[in-house]
Amino acid sequence: MHLPELPLSTPSLLFPAISLLMLAYTNRFLTLANVVRGLHANWQSTQEPMLLKQIQNLRRRIRIIKHMQTLGVLSLMFCVVSMTFLFFSHQTGGQITFGISLLLMLGSLAFTLVEIQMSGTALDLQLRDVKCREE
Fold first, then answer.
1. How far apart are the C-alpha atoms of 33 and 27, rounded to whole Å?
2. Predicted confidence (pLDDT) per residue in 1-38, tens digit
3. Residue 88 DSSP symbol
4. Other C-beta atoms within 10 Å of 1: how many?
């Protein structure tokens, strides 16, 4: 099977997208790190079980964000390797590494979807706790 020629400009289209995703991932990570610090300080003084559940949820979410970031960085690296192959007229190598780059980006986005769902669940837990205290 012969694949159509992949121009050098195609992998370069991923650069802005990957850069913006990495910035968003880093912002999520830093925000969660600050929330964890605040919850940890609060938990040390109150020992409230709900806070411990929230901290455990945040720990899992931070682990997922680290996977998101890792796959995003690997995607960018394979994209660069693909462009290098294409620059030196090695179509097959460029196509294979670009395909790997796309799969890594897909994995990163899948982890993002999981983390977003966990974030919604965490907020729901918080709101449920507030509702229980009102009643």
1. 10
2. 677 888 888 888 887 888 888 888 888 888 888 888 88
3. T
4. 2
Cα distance between residue 25 and residue 36, in whole Å: 16
Tokens of 77: 């690296």
DSSP percent split of the chain into helix, strand, coil, nearest 5 = 90, 0, 10
- Residue whose pair of structure tokens reads 């709900």 in the numeric block: 50
- Of 99, 71, 77, 88, give the one whose Cα is nearest residue 10: 99
- pLDDT tens-digit readout, 68-81: 999 999 999 999 99
CB under 8 Å, gap of 24 or more: what pairs does 65-70 form?
Answer: 65/25, 65/28, 65/29, 65/32, 65/111, 65/115, 66/29, 67/108, 67/111, 68/25, 68/108, 68/111, 68/112, 68/115, 69/22, 69/25, 69/26, 69/29, 69/108
Of 81, 65, 114, 86, the residue nearest 6 (C-alpha): 86
Give the pLDDT score at 72.
92
Q: So what's the pLDDT on residue 99?
A: 94
State the Rg of the chain over Cα: 20
